[in-house]
Amino acid sequence: MSADLSTVTEGPFAGWKRAEPGDTFNGLIGAYYYDTSDPTRVKVGFQAEKRHLNGGGSVHGGCLLTLADTSLFVFAIPHLGDGAAVTLQLDAQFQAPGREGDIIIATGEITRAGQTVIFGRGELRCGDKLLLSFTGILARKKIKPQGDA
Protein backbone atom coordinates (compact mmCIF):
# COMPACT_ATOMS: atom_id res chain seq x y z
CA MET A 1 0.00 0.00 0.00
CA SER A 2 1.31 3.43 -0.87
CA ALA A 3 2.72 5.49 1.98
CA ASP A 4 0.95 8.51 0.49
CA LEU A 5 -2.56 7.99 1.93
CA SER A 6 -5.20 10.57 2.67
CA THR A 7 -8.59 10.18 4.35
CA VAL A 8 -11.62 10.64 2.09
CA THR A 9 -14.21 13.00 3.58
CA GLU A 10 -17.15 12.62 1.17
CA GLY A 11 -18.66 10.32 -1.44
CA PRO A 12 -18.98 6.53 -1.46
CA PHE A 13 -15.55 6.05 0.13
CA ALA A 14 -15.97 8.59 2.97
CA GLY A 15 -13.85 7.51 5.93
CA TRP A 16 -11.63 5.28 3.79
CA LYS A 17 -7.98 5.99 2.92
CA ARG A 18 -7.13 6.96 -0.66
CA ALA A 19 -3.83 6.07 -2.26
CA GLU A 20 -2.58 8.59 -4.78
CA PRO A 21 -2.44 6.76 -8.12
CA GLY A 22 1.11 7.77 -9.00
CA ASP A 23 2.84 6.76 -12.21
CA THR A 24 2.92 2.98 -11.74
CA PHE A 25 0.68 0.42 -13.45
CA ASN A 26 -1.79 0.64 -10.56
CA GLY A 27 -1.98 4.36 -11.26
CA LEU A 28 -3.51 3.56 -14.63
CA ILE A 29 -6.43 1.86 -12.90
CA GLY A 30 -6.63 3.62 -9.51
CA ALA A 31 -7.20 5.49 -7.41
CA TYR A 32 -7.65 2.68 -4.92
CA TYR A 33 -9.33 3.13 -1.56
CA TYR A 34 -8.63 1.24 1.65
CA ASP A 35 -10.87 0.59 4.65
CA THR A 36 -8.50 -0.28 7.48
CA SER A 37 -10.96 0.31 10.33
CA ASP A 38 -10.80 -3.42 11.13
CA PRO A 39 -7.19 -4.56 10.55
CA THR A 40 -8.33 -8.19 10.32
CA ARG A 41 -10.82 -7.41 7.50
CA VAL A 42 -9.14 -4.77 5.34
CA LYS A 43 -11.13 -3.82 2.24
CA VAL A 44 -9.76 -2.46 -1.04
CA GLY A 45 -12.02 -0.73 -3.53
CA PHE A 46 -12.43 1.49 -6.54
CA GLN A 47 -15.23 2.96 -8.61
CA ALA A 48 -15.50 1.71 -12.18
CA GLU A 49 -15.27 4.43 -14.81
CA LYS A 50 -15.67 4.36 -18.58
CA ARG A 51 -11.90 3.86 -18.95
CA HIS A 52 -12.22 0.54 -17.06
CA LEU A 53 -14.70 -0.97 -19.54
CA ASN A 54 -14.12 -3.49 -22.30
CA GLY A 55 -15.72 -3.33 -25.75
CA GLY A 56 -18.87 -4.99 -24.42
CA GLY A 57 -19.48 -2.31 -21.79
CA SER A 58 -18.43 -4.42 -18.78
CA VAL A 59 -15.49 -3.79 -16.47
CA HIS A 60 -12.47 -5.32 -18.21
CA GLY A 61 -11.35 -8.62 -16.74
CA GLY A 62 -7.77 -7.36 -16.54
CA CYS A 63 -8.95 -4.47 -14.40
CA LEU A 64 -10.66 -6.87 -11.99
CA LEU A 65 -7.58 -9.11 -11.92
CA THR A 66 -5.39 -6.11 -11.11
CA LEU A 67 -7.63 -5.25 -8.17
CA ALA A 68 -7.50 -8.88 -7.00
CA ASP A 69 -3.69 -8.99 -7.24
CA THR A 70 -3.27 -5.63 -5.50
CA SER A 71 -5.67 -6.71 -2.76
CA LEU A 72 -3.74 -9.90 -2.13
CA PHE A 73 -0.66 -7.77 -1.36
CA VAL A 74 -2.69 -5.46 0.91
CA PHE A 75 -4.05 -8.46 2.83
CA ALA A 76 -0.46 -9.74 3.21
CA ILE A 77 1.00 -6.51 4.65
CA PRO A 78 0.85 -7.73 8.29
CA HIS A 79 2.79 -10.85 7.27
CA LEU A 80 5.48 -9.09 5.23
CA GLY A 81 7.08 -6.96 7.94
CA ASP A 82 9.85 -5.01 6.20
CA GLY A 83 9.94 -7.51 3.36
CA ALA A 84 8.43 -7.56 -0.08
CA ALA A 85 6.81 -10.19 -2.29
CA VAL A 86 5.98 -11.03 -5.89
CA THR A 87 2.98 -12.87 -7.30
CA LEU A 88 3.68 -16.54 -8.02
CA GLN A 89 0.13 -17.51 -8.92
CA LEU A 90 -3.26 -15.82 -9.21
CA ASP A 91 -6.34 -17.89 -10.01
CA ALA A 92 -9.71 -16.26 -10.57
CA GLN A 93 -13.26 -17.24 -11.39
CA PHE A 94 -15.37 -14.56 -13.03
CA GLN A 95 -18.93 -14.71 -11.71
CA ALA A 96 -20.73 -11.59 -13.00
CA PRO A 97 -19.88 -8.43 -14.94
CA GLY A 98 -19.10 -5.10 -13.35
CA ARG A 99 -20.58 -1.95 -14.87
CA GLU A 100 -19.62 1.70 -15.16
CA GLY A 101 -20.26 3.46 -11.87
CA ASP A 102 -20.04 0.30 -9.77
CA ILE A 103 -18.28 0.50 -6.44
CA ILE A 104 -16.18 -2.67 -6.47
CA ILE A 105 -14.84 -3.89 -3.13
CA ALA A 106 -12.26 -6.61 -2.49
CA THR A 107 -12.30 -8.55 0.75
CA GLY A 108 -10.21 -11.53 1.69
CA GLU A 109 -7.69 -13.13 3.94
CA ILE A 110 -4.30 -14.71 4.15
CA THR A 111 -4.85 -18.42 4.74
CA ARG A 112 -1.22 -19.32 5.39
CA ALA A 113 2.00 -17.34 5.68
CA GLY A 114 5.11 -19.50 5.50
CA GLN A 115 8.81 -18.69 5.40
CA THR A 116 8.93 -18.41 1.61
CA VAL A 117 5.33 -18.21 0.36
CA ILE A 118 2.06 -16.61 1.42
CA PHE A 119 -1.34 -18.00 0.41
CA GLY A 120 -4.49 -15.91 0.23
CA ARG A 121 -8.02 -15.76 -1.12
CA GLY A 122 -10.69 -13.18 -1.67
CA GLU A 123 -13.71 -11.87 -3.51
CA LEU A 124 -14.62 -8.79 -5.50
CA ARG A 125 -18.17 -7.60 -5.01
CA CYS A 126 -20.45 -4.79 -6.05
CA GLY A 127 -22.92 -4.66 -3.19
CA ASP A 128 -24.26 -8.21 -2.79
CA LYS A 129 -23.25 -9.23 -6.32
CA LEU A 130 -20.16 -11.46 -6.50
CA LEU A 131 -18.06 -10.41 -9.51
CA LEU A 132 -14.93 -12.49 -9.01
CA SER A 133 -13.45 -14.96 -6.55
CA PHE A 134 -9.70 -15.48 -6.41
CA THR A 135 -6.85 -17.30 -4.74
CA GLY A 136 -3.19 -16.44 -4.95
CA ILE A 137 0.30 -17.26 -3.86
CA LEU A 138 2.95 -14.65 -3.11
CA ALA A 139 6.66 -15.42 -2.87
CA ARG A 140 8.62 -13.53 -0.28
CA LYS A 141 11.39 -11.47 -1.84
CA LYS A 142 14.58 -10.37 -0.16
CA ILE A 143 15.08 -6.63 -0.34
CA LYS A 144 18.51 -5.68 -1.65
CA PRO A 145 20.38 -2.93 0.20
CA GLN A 146 20.48 0.46 -1.54
CA GLY A 147 23.14 0.59 -4.24
CA ASP A 148 23.08 -3.15 -5.07
CA ALA A 149 22.11 -4.04 -8.62
UniProtKB/TrEMBL annotation:
GO molecular function, one term: acyl-CoA hydrolase activity
Residue intervals of the Thioesterase domain: 56-130
Organism: Asticcacaulis biprosthecium C19
Organism domain of life: Bacteria
InterPro entries the UniProt entry points to: HotDog_dom_sf, PAAI_dom, Thioestr_dom
Taxonomic classification: Bacteria, Pseudomonadati, Pseudomonadota, Alphaproteobacteria, Caulobacterales
Any single Pfam family the record assigns to this protein: 4HBT
Alphabetized UniProt keyword annotations: Hydrolase
Protein name: Uncharacterized domain 1 domain protein
Gene3D superfamilies: Hotdog Thioesterase
